[in-house]
Amino acid sequence: MTRVRGIDALRGIGALAVFGCHINQYWAFLHLPGKLPQLSALAAHGVDLFIVISGFCLALPMTRHRPAVDAIPFWKRRALRILPAYYVALLAAFALAALPPTWPLLAQSPAGGGDLAAYALFVQAWIPSTTGAINGSLWSVSLEVHLYLLFPLLVAWWRRWGLWSLLAASFLLSVAWSALGPLAPGTALGYSFTLPDRLSQFVAGMCCAWVFTHRRTLQRRWLVALLAVGLVMAAAVDTAHIHLGASVVWAIPCAAAVLLFTGPVGDWFAHTPMDGFGLRSYSFYLVHQPVIQLAAPLVALLPSAWPVYWLVGGAVVLLVTTLVARVLYRWVELPSHRLSRKARTGRAGVEPVGG
After folding, report:
1. Are 284 and 8 in contact, with CB atoms under 8 Å apart?
2. Residue 345's CB: how many other CB atoms inside 10 A?
3. Is 128 helix (H, G, I), strand (E, B) or coil?
4. At what angle do helices 163-179 and 246-260 cross, to 10 degrees?
5. What GO molecular function annotations does the UniProt record carry, in alphabetical order (predicted)?
6. Ranges of H-type helices in the chain
């Protein structure tokens, strides 16, 4: 199966959305007017989009035949693909979060060995006190690892009972899990950063892969309408601070966006710089938060006006983050991708699905 045009660009859009959200979150001096802070906060759901895209890409090669996955080789390829860049970015962020000159910019207290161990073992989302101890954005990589570990079981369910029953079960699990949050505040019970809550989004992406393969004639106007209605519903849920089933609601516009970008919309974006940016969006995501936090004191020296902070400071920090991500991608992520492809084909080959 060839690369699906547009999916990398969509991933890049999600990364930029999260970047914009974190500028507002970590630059306390910004003081956006009106409803801009709330709109900025909605951009954090670019992570939801990542999860749906992940389910789409992993399931797509299985949609034309009886789904099956060989667990050990699959886990090996996934590890080669994401772990090297993750650990390099983690060690750099840990040094910054532990050293006296920089830790006050990144965390509430200096990072310690326990925090590093939680991140290295991908359990920081299950220990809320460590989630933001080094680089809070890395919780989603922890979640991806858990989804990869579970993927062979999801495929087994798919083979036995069908994909749509898996979607229904994952939706029920997400709603039930989110309902547990008020029972044990401050713990991982009901925590939205964990697998029971976000599995619904990953499975929604798997369903998008099936729809893309078997029903390619979905009309664009219906997808646009679903995206618009889904965004309004999801924004309303966030605005009302409704946590029950919020991940399920956000799965709707994200799934619509994925299907929309598998057609002419994605073809158009594939000819823009966003496509190349999307290829490096994983490295960009890994490093963006520390760069934003470290740059805060310098950006605060600009003339005191939020448009200046956004247009000048934001543009410079975006450029710096992109350059750092490019180095990480060129020297760490790209070589690990090549190893992953060799593990799949036994030689240098082309990854079946984009991203």
Report:
1. no
2. 12
3. helix
4. 140
5. acyltransferase activity, transferring groups other than amino-acyl groups; hydrolase activity
6. 7-26, 36-42, 46-59, 71-98, 103-106, 113-120, 139-161, 163-179, 195-214, 220-239, 246-260, 264-269, 273-279, 281-299, 306-308, 314-328, 334-345
CB 19 within 8 A of CB 293: no
Q: Measure the CA–CA gap between 26 and 201, rounded to whole angstroms.
A: 27
Q: How far is CA 163 from CA 132, 200, 205, 208, 271, in A?
A: 35, 12, 11, 11, 33
Give the per-residue pLDDT at 354. 42
Which residues, in sequence order, are CB contacts of 70 under 8 Å at separation 6+? none
Q: Which one-letter amino acid corresponds to residue 253?
A: P
Whole-angstrom CA distances from 275 to 3, 266, 271 are 12, 9, 7
Choose among 3, 4, 10: nearest CA to 277.
10
pLDDT at 345: 61
Nearest to 283 by CA among 97, 87, 20: 87
User: CA angle, corner 247, sides to 183 and 258, nearest 5?
Assistant: 170
pLDDT tier for residue 2 given thresholds of 50, 70 and 90? low
Structure tokens at 311: 């247009």
Nearest to 260 by CA among 210, 301, 224, 288: 224
Tokens standing for residue 70:
């060989």
User: Of 192, 190, 193, 194, nearest to 177 (Cα)?
Assistant: 190
Q: How far apart are CA 64 and CA 67, in angstroms?
A: 8
Give the residue from 248, 103, 101, 233 showing the smallest Cα distance to 167: 248
Q: What is the pLDDT of residues 239-254, one digit of tens each?
A: 899 999 999 999 999 9
The residue-averaged pLDDT of 42-69 equals: 95
